[in-house]
Amino acid sequence: VRQVIAVDMGGTNIRAARVDATGVILARHTVPTPASASVEIGLDALTEAISAVRDGSEDAAAIACPGPLDTVRGTLVSPPQLPAWRDVPLERLLEERLLLPTHIINHASAAALGEWTFGAGRGTAHMVYIIAGTGIGGGAVAHGTLIEGRAGMALEFGHTCLDPHGPICGCGLLGCVEAYSAGAGITRRAHEAIARGEGAGITEAAAGEAITGESVARAARTGDAAAVQIIATAGEMLGVGVANLLHLFDTEKVVIGGGMTRMGPRYWEPFMIAIARHTLLPYAGVPIVFSELGDNAGLLGAASRALILRSDALHTSNAMP
Ligand SMILES: [Zn+2]
Question: End-to-end alpha-carbon separation of the chain, Å?
């Protein structure tokens, strides 16, 4: 059975694994991401994590990376989590170090590919995947192929617009799905409510700590009116966004991962009501399910991407302009 190296490179941790063709993780190693350090130190950390899981039998590697990136050139463009990494040809630099064909893939696309190959999307030809946590991302498989777009940036669902006059998003645009439905957006709405003199229950739930999506959800469970409204709107707006995706993709299944899956009915009931209210009849029965792989979706998606690479496919052309 073939084995490959899979890496999930986040702003906090670099998680490396050796994975077989059936998606079984045979070895894993995690190191902290030296997020504010130089590219050279970052590459050393990546190499360290990968070396700890190698046994010589693997024939390809893939790295799930934060965007924006360019999968055609194999380059990390300007990930906000890694300020020193600007136009870094990560595929070529890692191939030189690992002597393995290496591919990069954006995080949300990797998680989509992982769920489709080994998780909740198994057996479908058409699947849409959403990850909703601090931010919101997406991925899609159509006709049995991951849609990556021109350079790996397809399905940037979190920054699609639901209201051109809506609240400002962390990206600078107005009315993005992420500005309503992700942890950061929920937190911003909570601070606005408190500034208006509402949301006493939110302050109480945060208990002196920074307000998070979770503390707003806790305040909603105790019945704080502002918190209830913020969580319900967050769920409703995600539902509107997913209804849009149903119309665009005519998919077989929607899979949802990320921390928001733990928000409970105050988020997910308005979500389902919005889906019903904003979806044409032909899409009404499409199953919407939570992720099966949880935190391993990105790692196993990277494994799936590496399994598609062949051992003779060292792509030195990445060094070309
Ligand atoms: Zn945005």
Answer: 36
pLDDT in tens, the chain (321 residues): 899 999 999 989 999 999 999 999 999 999 999 999 999 999 999 999 999 999 999 999 999 999 899 999 999 999 988 999 999 999 999 999 999 999 999 999 999 999 999 999 999 999 999 999 989 999 999 999 999 999 999 999 999 999 999 999 999 999 999 999 999 999 999 999 999 999 999 999 999 999 999 999 999 999 999 999 999 999 999 999 999 999 999 999 999 999 999 999 999 999 999 999 999 999 989 999 999 999 999 999 999 999 987 655 554 443 333
Distance (Å) from CA 18 to ligand 1 centroid: 34
Cα 12 to averaged position of ligand 1 atoms, centre (Å): 22
| Sheet containing 58-65, strands listed edge to edge, beginning at the edge strand earlier in sequence | 25-32, 13-20, 3-9, 58-65, 102-106
Q: How many whole angstroms from 168 Cα to the centroid of ligand 1?
A: 8
- DSSP codes joined into one string, 239-252: HHHHHHHHHHH--S
What is the number of other CB atoms lying within 10 angstroms of the CB of residue 57?
A: 12
For residue 49, the CA-to-ligand 1 centroid distance in Å is 32
Kindly list the protein residues that place their beta carbon closer than 5 angstroms to ligand 1, a single-atom ion: 159, 169, 171, 173, 176
Alpha carbon of 137 to ligand 1 centroid (Å): 10
pTM, full prediction: 0.92
Give distance in angstroms: CA of 186 to centre of ligand 1.
13
CA 175 to centroid of ligand 1, rounded, Å: 7
